Amino acid sequence: MSNILNGILLVDKAPQSTSFYLVSLLRRLTGIEKIGHAGTLDPFATGVMVMLIGKEMTRRSHEFLSSDKEYRATIQLGLTTETYDLEGAIVERSDKVPTLAEVELALSAFQGDILQTPPMYSAKKVGGKKLYDLARRGIVIERQPVLVRVAIELLQYNYPMVDIKVTCSKGTYIRSLAHDLGQGLGCGAHLFELTRTRSGCFRLEDCVPQALLKDREFDITPHLRRL
Q1: Do domains 7-66+201-223 and 69-199 have the same CATH topology?
Q2: How far out from the chain centre does Cα 52 lie?
Q3: CA distance 132 to 111
Q4: pTM of the model
Q5: Tell me: the pLDDT tens digits for 64-118?
Q6: Taking phi first (over 0 means left), then psi (-120 to 50 degrees means alpha), and beta for anything else, what does residue 57 get?
Q7: Dist CA 178 CA 188 (whole Å)
Q8: Which CATH class is domain 69-199?
Q9: Which of 42, 68, 113, 219 is catalytic?
Q10: Is residue 51 within 8 Å of 10, Cβ to Cβ?
Q11: 42 catalytic per annotation
Q12: Domain layout of the chain by residue ranges
C-alpha cells in the first residue's frame, strides 16, 4: 500500500484491545510509520477510535483531541472497585438497592458544568508522572478537580445495572462518573461497560470493525476521510 496515504480512519475498537495495538495493526497494514489517534479508550471499552494516518494528519491531532464525546455506559451498583471499573479489585460491597427516583435524583447532580476529580487509575500526569503508575505502586496523591461539561440521559435502570447515555467535554472520565454516582447513592458503583458512540463529528456507524485490520488484503483507502 502506498506510503503517501494521509487521512482519518474511523475504527470500532474491540474489547480488550489497546490504542497502541490499533496503531501497530495499521502500521503493519499500511507500511506507514506516522500513525496516531485522537483520544484513547480503556482496554475493556469499545467504540469510536479516530485513527490519524500519515504525517499530515498526525500533525493535526490537536484539532481532534479537544472534541466532545458521546458514550453509552452501564454502571453496576453495589460494588466499588479500586479502578472505578470492572477490571479493578473490589474494595467495598453494599446491599442497598436505590429506587428509580433516587437514581434519577443522583444523576441530576451530574448535569452541566461540574468539577470532577481525575481517578488515580488514569493516564493523567501530575508532576510529570502518570497517575496509574503511582497507583500501581500503592501511592495515592491529591488531585485537583477539573471543570468538565456533562449531559446524562438515563436509558434504563434494572438493579444493579444503570444504563446511561453521556455527552461530555474533553477530559471527562466516565469511570469517575460511575464511582461518584455510587457515592451519591450510598451504595457504591463501578463502570461495567463502555462504548464510545461519537467523537466530535465522527460516529460509531461510520467505523470499520477492528477485525478487518488483521486482514493483510484489507484496503483502507476507500474508508479514509480527508478534512
Answers
A1: yes
A2: 17
A3: 27
A4: 0.92
A5: 888 999 999 999 999 999 999 999 999 999 999 999 999 999 999 999 999 998 8
A6: alpha
A7: 9
A8: alpha beta
A9: 42
A10: yes
A11: yes
A12: 7-66+201-223, 69-199
- Top-level CATH class of 7-66+201-223? alpha beta
Q: Note the pLDDT tens digit of each residue in 30-58.
A: 999 999 999 889 999 999 999 999 999 99
| DSSP structural state of residue 89 | P
Amino acid letter for position 219: D
Check residue 190 and give left, alpha or beta (phi > 0: left; psi -120 to 50: alpha).
beta
Question: In this structure, what C-alpha cell is assigned to residue 161?
Answer: 445495572
Angle at 118 between CA 110 and CA 96, to 5 degrees: 55
Taken as a whole, the chain contains a residue count of 227
What's the distance, CA 122 to chain centroid? Answer: 11
Residue reference for cell 445495572: 161
CB 217 within 8 A of CB 67: no
